[in-house]
Amino acid sequence: MLIDFHHRQSAHCESGVTANLLSHCGLEIDEPLAFGIGAGLFFAYLPFFKVDHIPMTTFRMLPGMIFGRATKMLGVKVKVRRFHDPQKAMIELNRLLAKNIPVGLQVGVYWLPFFPEALRFHFNGHNIIVYGKKNGDYLISDPTLDAPVSCSSRALQKARFAKGPLAPKGKMYYVTGSMAQPDFSRAIIKGVRRTCFFMLKSPRPFAGVHGIRYLAKKIKLWPKKLGKEKALLYLAQIIRMQEEIGTGGAGFRFLYGAFLQEAADILPQKESLLKISREITETGDRWREFALVASRICKDRVGAGNTFEAAADILLDCADREKNFFQELKRSINS
Amino acid sequence: MRKDDVPQDEGVLGIWHEISYAVNKEGKYVQVPSAGWEPANVANELARRQIRQQIEEVRQQVKKGALSPLAYHMIRNNMDERLLSQYTGIPKKKVRCHLTPKRFKALNRQYLKRYADALDLSIDDLGRI
User: Fold this and answer.
1) Is residue B8 within 8 Å of B24, Cβ to Cβ?
2) Residue A129 sits in a domain of what CATH number?
3) Beta bridge partners of A63
């Protein structure tokens, strides 16, 4: 079983899977467009929700939402299934592959043998595409990696039924049919509105722009409240959530900037979208500055600018900028 | 980020690259492969050092006979009692019991197999560190 599938690398797993699955089915679309239409950009700091005893910072929506929203907006028919029985889940996967259908899977990265060793922690929101089976091993297109890989049936089954937060429960999804001529401009407008809503109107204090401010406020308190060692671990966790493969904070700003450039070619508000795209690029750079300062703190490089206070101030600046351009974006898209 | 500024600091990604979106000279966004970035490598190393320290502590405890080998394999797989309980279907309280050497030695094969399967080990390996 081998489907003629074109592997394209992407910055984020789910927007990459969405773009690649849709492109395979004849709806040519790239990652930024899938990300923007699927409204993938988000921010939340959840102090009460801990992973490895460290509060959760997230830059993304729940897994499955980009695919779900993008396909719905573009009028593509899809099927999503979860399973109780691992055996049944693998049989169903084989059945679809035999029918030449590439299948998207939600998996836990801890059990994936091909994934970079240093990034294999218990994170269950990863997405991959299975496009064939050869000598008993599954052929996998993981959009965050340079090239397709293969994986034993045993490891894949374990990854599909990983446990813990966001447990995938064998979740699989695939395209069953698509609309002939989807309305891209309508989909883009709806996606943008959605993201503006998430970032500007999410309930205080944990999510959206408010969430960024909330986190900044907490960071300033950490060294006193937690002691140095724990404060450093908390800070390192933010950098990891922000900068490691496909979960990205700054990376998502650049991805969104790329999306707005594409949107500018499709929508009439060309000039203002290009301007906002430049602004979001600058904000992405600010996020990177935050990561840089934070990592210097982690490395214990004492210097004038390397304090929790300074890092938090950069975040506050990010929050102000994001508030401005999302408001501007909202006005522009509604005009 | 400009295309020329995309970092190429090898580290956590190993042989792989990640995709960054960056603007080229004309101000247009393009995909650029990156070998990694130092701050992400630093943060990852910090977290891993912490985990290695925990594993070593537990290993010493097992050697001393204060904890069972199960405790070592659990922490080595980056799990806590709750996650191991979810993987095995064994209640958290019982898992906690089985972390003591005395209770662990008394475990029957059925339980051992459930732990071994969850941790991807053989039953023999489960009893060793």
Assistant:
1) no
2) 3.90.70.10
3) none
CATH number 1.10.260 is the correct assignment for the domain at B40-123 = yes
Distance CA(A81)–CA(A93), nearest Å, equals 11
Q: Do B1 and A163 touch (CB under 8 A)?
A: no
- What residue numbers bound the domain in which A83 lies? 13-37+76-178
Q: Please tell me whether residues A168 and A193 are part of one structural domain.
A: no
Pick from B6, B8, B26, B29 the residue to mutate for testing the A interface (most A CBs within 10 Å): B29
Is residue A57 assigned to a domain? Answer: no
Question: How many residues would you count in chain A?
Answer: 335
φ, ψ for residue A43, nearest 5 deg: -150, 135
Give the mutation candidate from A243, A265, A270, A278 for the B interface (greatest B CB count, under 10 A).
A243
Q: Are residues A170 and A189 in the same domain?
A: no
For residues A282 and A198, state if they share a domain. Answer: yes
What residues of chain A lie within 8 A of the CB of B87, using their CB?
A: 163
Question: Across-strand partners of A107?
Answer: A126
What is the percentage of chain A residues whose pLDDT exceeds 70? Answer: 97
Identify the bridge partners of residue A150 per DSSP, sorted by sequence position: A139
Strands A126-134 and A103-107, bridge-based pairing: antiparallel
The ipTM value here is 0.92
Alpha carbons A133 and A156: distance in angstroms, whole number: 12
Asked if B31 and B21 touch (Cβ cutoff 8 Å), the reply is: yes
The pLDDT of residue B35 is 93
Q: Please, which residues bridge with residue A51 across strands? A: A54
Cα of B90 vs its chain's centroid, Å? 21
pLDDT, tens digit, 9 for 90 and up, residues B16-72: 999 999 999 999 999 999 999 999 999 999 888 999 999 999 999 999 999 999 999
pTM of the model: 0.93
User: Which of A158, A240, A284 is the closest to B40 by Cβ?
Assistant: A240
Which of A162, A178, A194 terminates a domain? The answer is A178
Indicate if A189 and A128 belong to the same structural domain: no
Q: Which of A178, A205, A225 is the last residue of a domain?
A: A178
